[in-house]
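ok, trying the design again with the full structure, not the truncated one.
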């Protein structure tokens, strides 16, 4: 239905109007800021851009806008503040905590059209990125220049660098290269007051007070929207080798980690259980990596130049009986195939609509913690399949409870929800985090107190009111 000028003017004057069928009120000031192709109000677009990978809440935004410049984002935020219009940032929509879900008539701010690497300096090794740059595109950009962007995970082919920064994404190389936070050397953010803050400008040293950049990293769009990021790049990766080891006893994984760390520099130290391996093998038709199945597997990556030292460590862990079998990649293709066993897990278990937890404790606390959580889940639901995998080298476990075919999603999630407080109490007792790398969003917002003290939450609320005085920046996420 196209509106005539007269009807349009009347509607704009009213500031608000109703969509076709009177479904939702929606702000029409958007038409004053964006061109028609930068606004979507149709049901399909709202469903598509109003969600992330979670499926517990139906997307129901009032509109989706696609800004092309920081100035447009500022104009949008200012008008949204005047009209109390909630805004939800949207990147690659690969989030796992509901942080980018718009379920209450909000306006989704998609950064799909702010997707350029606008500058690169070889001396500084800094790529200046708009928030909508796909993580994989930055990785390729770096490789083409003999460098590396070293933060990597299964969804890097579709996640956005802006969303990675907003959740401080981690992934599989944290043990050697750290988290997204460690590679952000400059950040431009539009706050909830519509101000543009230019933080740190790519400096290595800058001792001039609070480093505001780091407040926005991991803030999940609740303090401001990232409109540009200066990302540091590392020197090119060396040719690497991948090893998969069979480890019957979970605590021995940490002895294996220590044995290899004594001898080599690990780029990755991941683990997965036999159940996880069974699911990814079935889903991707992959061969068993070892001749004898075991309860747990470790996947290691290291530089080719350290093969001899790695083999010495392998001999030791076999002699100690911690490892029963192992395979070492003989080619890049085989290395990639072994990585599939780990990186394919998430996608392979998606059909079981798993109840996900993304937990972190100190590496030293892992054995006792895993035993306690496993006992807790098995005691509550002995017939549920529990799938363990994750970045054990940095203390991050992914606990996925798989939905039995006979149960509805609602009933299953309700059941799992009853044990969440028990699991999070174990996290709290271990001094851990209820969300290691996926963020809090809405899924973990009710449990924040298990990882942050009342005093810390009060400070976080103070920061929220300082940076988002009108409460329009991704409301209902992280701090509820
Ligand atoms: C991983 C991906 C998302 C998930 O595989 O490391 O972070 O939990 C996860 O399945
Ligand atoms: Zn992970």
């Amino acid at each position: 239905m196209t509106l005539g000028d007269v009807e349009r003017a009347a509607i704009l004057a009213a500031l608000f109007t109703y969509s076709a069928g009177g479904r939702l009120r929606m702000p029409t000031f958007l038409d004053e800021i964006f061109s028609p192709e930068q606004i979507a109000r149709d049901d399909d677009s709202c469903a598509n851009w109003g969600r992330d990978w979670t499926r517990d809440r139906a997307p129901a935004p009032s509109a989706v806008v696609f800004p092309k410049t920081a100035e447009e984002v500022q104009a949008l935020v200012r008008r949204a503040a005047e009209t109390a219009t909630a805004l939800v940032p949207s990147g690659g929509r690969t989030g796992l905590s509901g942080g980018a879900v718009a379920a209450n008539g909000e306006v989704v701010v998609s950064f799909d059209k702010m997707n350029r690497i606008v500058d690169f300096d070889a001396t500084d090794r800094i790529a200046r990125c708009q928030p909508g740059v796909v993580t994989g595109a930055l990785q390729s950009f770096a490789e083409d220049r003999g460098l590396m962007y070293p933060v990597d995970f299964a969804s890097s082919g579709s996640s956005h660098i802006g969303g990675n920064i907003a959740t401080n994404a981690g992934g599989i190389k944290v043990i050697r290269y750290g988290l997204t936070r460690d590679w952000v050397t400059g950040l431009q953010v539009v706050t909830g007051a519509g101000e543009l803050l230019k933080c740190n400008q790519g400096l290595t040293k800058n001792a001039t007070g609070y480093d505001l950049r780091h407040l926005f990293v991991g803030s999940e769009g609740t303090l401001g929207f990232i409109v540009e990021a200066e990302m540091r790049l590392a020197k090119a990766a060396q040719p690497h080798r991948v090893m998969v080891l069979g480890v019957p006893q979970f605590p021995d994984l940490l002895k294996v980690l220590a044995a290899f760390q004594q001898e080599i520099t690990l780029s990755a130290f991941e683990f997965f259980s036999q159940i996880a391996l069974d699911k990814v093998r079935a889903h991707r038709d992959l061969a068993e990596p070892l001749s004898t199945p075991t309860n747990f597997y470790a996947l290691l990556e290291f530089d080719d130049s350290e093969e001899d030292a790695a083999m010495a460590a392998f001999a030791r862990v076999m002699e100690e009986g911690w490892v029963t079998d192992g395979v070492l990649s003989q080619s890049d293709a085989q290395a990639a195939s072994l990585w599939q066993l780990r990186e394919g897990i998430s996608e392979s278990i998606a059909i079981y609509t798993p109840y996900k937890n993304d937990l972190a404790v100190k590496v030293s606390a892992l054995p006792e913690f895993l035993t306690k959580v496993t006992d807790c889940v098995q005691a509550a639901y002995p017939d549920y399949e529990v799938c363990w995998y994750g970045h054990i080298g940095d203390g991050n476990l992914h606990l996925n409870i798989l939905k039995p075919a006979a149960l509805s999603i609602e009933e299953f999630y309700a059941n799992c929800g009853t044990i969440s407080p028990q699991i999070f109490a174990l996290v709290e007792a271990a001094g851990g985090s209820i969300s290691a790398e996926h963020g809090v969003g809405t899924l973990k917002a009710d449990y924040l107190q298990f990882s942050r003290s009342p005093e810390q939450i009060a400070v976080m609320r103070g920061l929220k009111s300082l940076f988002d005085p009108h409460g329009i920046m991704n409301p209902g996420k992280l701090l509820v």
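Keeping the full-length input from now on. The CA atoms of residues 245 and 312 lie 14 Å apart.
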